[in-house]
Write a sequence for this structure.
């Protein structure tokens, strides 16, 4: 019987990062993975392949609509969808091989099969009808999440698809109906819109991007509508009927009322994700779940069963790969007797559309609800020199600072490369920095990041270029 210091169940970003950090700290580590490849949802059917298609489709649209005005004459681009899918697969393969390399480099054993917790210190790994029991001092559950399903709508991953199927469509749908106006639905909707689909997004709430700053969401919706998106907000899809030629989606107002039927070639169900705990034997082992099916943990990631911890999408908090990674590092350090910690107030979120949307910290709505006095500084990319000359002026930077201390409480950006620009705000907030600190930090000219500095200046009502 193999014996380890740590066994991690799941090799997504949380799991494999946890394993690497534990190995760095001198532990004997094994990971358990039920799929053929390492990397979890993120690397195989989530974050990474979607970014490949977002990039490729953006290049396709640039060639079709933007090159000419820059003086670059090319014939109309032709879409080779199989080649684009091959481009996506090459990226997946490269990342998966990278994780395999990290396992070998750090002398981490990879146990292929489904992991089941038998109790403190014991994990059963089953594959191809055979099983083995592994002994370990500690167990980390990092099994991630699964797609959330909509009652009465059967996903076949051909015509009615989840995010997984939407990454591998064999042809561009003429009409794509997206159920859910969250990050994943808007990203994948933008991929297929660029490639030629008519895209309609149906959202139960009266806004897109639930949880993001309201002003940002409104402006972003206007930008997407200019790009060709259609939205039905405050609405719900109550059923999808498949005929031989088309799909008929029944849509009703969320508050009740007359239904209408909309035709689509593909329906994408993107209503969120749910913690994945199937087959782990948690109930039998005595690992408690909360009412939403997430593994309950204490502030040190420990579950109700001694020696068993949990991280990532399977526990409470934002379902983000980088949140899982930070938790993986923290729990490995805690197991090693160190002071592992995650600052949940400084976890950035990014929507990888064009333009991107990024956010960190509090929204205006959250500050109002908490009764926090705050000041706002905003700066539009229309007033940013680099954005002007590149003709990429959609969006703005918004900084929220404490009215008394000037400490930055939240930063929200719509714009090209917003996902890269957000990180100076993250660093500033980790050090408890003020808008004044950011405003007095020299930024290179000409860059889009100057808009962040100007927004910080605007907190004190002294923006230079506006």
């Amino acid at each position: 019987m193999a014996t380890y210091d740590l066994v991690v169940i799941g090799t997504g970003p949380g799991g494999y990062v946890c394993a690497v950090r534990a190995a760095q700290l001198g532990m004997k580590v094994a990971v358990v993975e039920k799929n053929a490849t390492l990397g979890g949802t993120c690397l195989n059917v989530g974050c990474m392949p979607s970014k490949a298609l977002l990039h490729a489709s953006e290049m396709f649209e640039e060639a079709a609509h933007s090159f000419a005005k820059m003086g670059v004459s090319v014939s109309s681009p032709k879409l080779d969808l199989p080649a684009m899918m091959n481009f996506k697969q090459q990226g997946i393969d490269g990342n998966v091989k990278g994780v395999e390399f990290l396992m070998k480099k750090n002398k981490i054993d990879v146990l292929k099969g489904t992991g089941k917790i038998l109790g403190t210190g014991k994990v059963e790994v089953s594959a191809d009808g055979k099983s083995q029991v592994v002994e370990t001092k500690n167990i980390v559950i990092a099994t991630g999440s699964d797609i959330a399903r909509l009652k009465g709508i059967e996903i076949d991953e051909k015509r009615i698809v989840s995010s997984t199927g939407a990454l591998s469509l064999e042809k561009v749908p003429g009409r794509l109906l997206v159920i859910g106006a969250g990050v994943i639905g808007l990203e994948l909707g933008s991929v297929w819109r660029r490639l030629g689909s008519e895209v309609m997004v149906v959202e139960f709430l009266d806004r897109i991007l639930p949880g993001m700053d309201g002003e940002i969401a409104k402006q972003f919706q206007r930008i997407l509508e200019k790009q060709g998106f259609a939205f039905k907000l405050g609405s719900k899809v109550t059923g999808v009927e498949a005929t031989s030629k088309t799909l008929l989606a029944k849509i009703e107002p969320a508050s009740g009322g007359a239904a209408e039927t909309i035709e689509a070639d593909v329906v994408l169900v993107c209503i969120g994700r749910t913690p994945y705990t199937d087959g782990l034997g948690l109930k039998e082992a005595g690992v408690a779940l909360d009412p939403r099916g997430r593994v309950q943990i204490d502030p040190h990631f420990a579950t109700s069963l001694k020696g068993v911890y949990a991280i990532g999408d399977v526990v409470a908090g934002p379902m983000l790969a980088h949140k899982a990674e930070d938790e993986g590092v923290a729990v490995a350090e805690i197991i090693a007797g160190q002071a592992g910690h995650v600052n949940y107030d400084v976890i950035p979120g990014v929507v990888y559309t064009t333009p991107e949307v990024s956010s960190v910290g509090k929204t205006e709505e959250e500050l109002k609800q908490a009764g926090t006095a705050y000041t706002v500084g905003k700066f539009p990319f229309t007033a940013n020199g680099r954005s002007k000359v590149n003709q990429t002026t959609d969006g703005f930077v918004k900084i929220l600072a404490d009215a008394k201390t000037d400490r930055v409480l939240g930063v929200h950006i719509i714009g090209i490369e917003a996902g890269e620009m957000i990180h100076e705000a993250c660093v500033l907030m980790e050090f408890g920095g003020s808008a004044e600190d950011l405003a007095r930090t020299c930024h290179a000219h000409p860059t889009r990041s100057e808009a962040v500095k100007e927004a910080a200046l605007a907190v004190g009502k002294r923006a230079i270029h506006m």
Notes: DSSP finds 14 helices and 22 strands in the chain. Residues 3-146+274-335 form a domain with the FAD/NAD(P)-binding domain fold (CATH 3.50.50.60). The first helix runs from residue 13 to 24. The longest strand covers residues 130-141.
